[in-house]
Each structure stands twice: as structure tokens, then as C-alpha cells.
Design goal:
- This protein has 153 residues and is α+β, with helices and mostly antiparallel strands.
- It is built from 1 helix and 8 strands; from the N terminus they run αββββββββ.
- The chain has a domain of 89 residues: Sandwich (Immunoglobulin-like), CATH 2.60.40.10.
- The longest helix is centred in the N-terminal third of the chain and has 25 residues.
- The mean pLDDT is 81.
């Protein structure tokens, strides 16, 4: 008692159809996706933005015994981190701004005082700017200082 070839083919086709339907149901139910799942963990990084304080209490005075030298001083600013840190000083007269004490935005000093030499007679204020990396913080200008030519000996 054997199975005919035609019946055998129908049985195999039916078996394949059931298997395909079963796989389709499993996929629709999400079972197949479980074999390819991954787990992610949310992470939060916290960054603190620092700040750069502006130089305070800047003062300018004519150096004793010289008509053309101005001494400039200011309070120290806390260094916010490791890196390039310093100050530059500008001399202001009317609408003219000139570098002072041999400093500039690209030539910083790390001391809290300097001497501006060869200053011509006139009325000036000085302004100090702290620099850290790409940050800058400009302090308030000094009170006006009037330099007059002193008569020779």
C-alpha cells in the first residue's frame, strides 16, 4: 500500500504551505525579530561651560621721573584651565586704539602690570583684556590720565 506520486506531491506542497504560513505568523508576531534584537543604553554626558572673568581695578599712572612712561596694573584673573592664558593692554585716546606695553591679541603677557613706554603727551585711558584659548573678557577702562611734556633739566 503505497502513496501515489501525485498524492505525495500534494502532501509536500501542503507541508511547504503550512511551513511558510507558520514562518509568516511568527514574523508578524515579532518572534523572528527577537533573533536580531539589540539592547541600547541611554547615556547622558554633562559638560560644564567655564567662564573667563574680566580684569578688574585697572589703574594707570605716570612713572615717576619719566614723561613718556605709563605704569598699568590690574587684578589677577583666575586661569580657567590649562592652555594659553594671558592679557593684552590697549591705550585709548579719543577714537584711537593702540596696542600698549608691547602686547596684542597674539602677544600676551602673564603678569598683572606693565609699563607703556614712549607715550606721547595726551589724555589716555587703558583697557586690559584677559584671553584664554579663544575666549576674551575685556575689563573696564582706567580713569583718564593726562601726560604732559615735562621741561628738560
Amino acid at each position: 500500500m503505497g502513496i501515489s506520486a501525485a498524492r505525495h506531491r500534494r502532501f509536500i506542497a501542503l507541508l511547504v504551505a503550512f511551513a511558510a504560513a507558520g514562518v509568516g505568523l511568527l514574523m508578524a508576531a515579532g518572534w523572528a525579530g527577537a533573533f536580531f534584537s539589540s539592547q541600547a543604553t541611554a547615556q547622558t554626558n554633562t559638560f560644564t561651560a567655564g567662564s573667563l572673568e574680566a580684569p578688574a581695578n585697572a589703574a594707570a599712572s605716570q612713572s615717576a621721573g619719566t614723561a613718556s612712561t605709563v605704569d598699568v596694573s590690574w587684578n589677577e584673573v583666575p586661569d580657567p584651565g590649562s592652555g594659553s592664558f594671558g592679557y593684552y593692554v590697549e591705550r585709548l585716546s579719543g577714537g584711537t586704539v593702540s596696542p600698549a606695553c608691547g602686547t596684542s591679541p597674539s602677544s600676551l603677557i602673564t603678569t598683572t602690570s606693565c609699563s607703556d613706554t614712549d607715550v606721547p603727551p595726551g589724555t589716555y585711558t587703558y583697557q586690559v583684556t584677559a584671553v584664554y584659548a579663544s575666549w576674551t573678557a575685556q575689563g573696564a577702562a582706567t580713569t583718564s590720565l593726562k601726560l604732559t611734556a615735562q621741561p628738560g633739566p
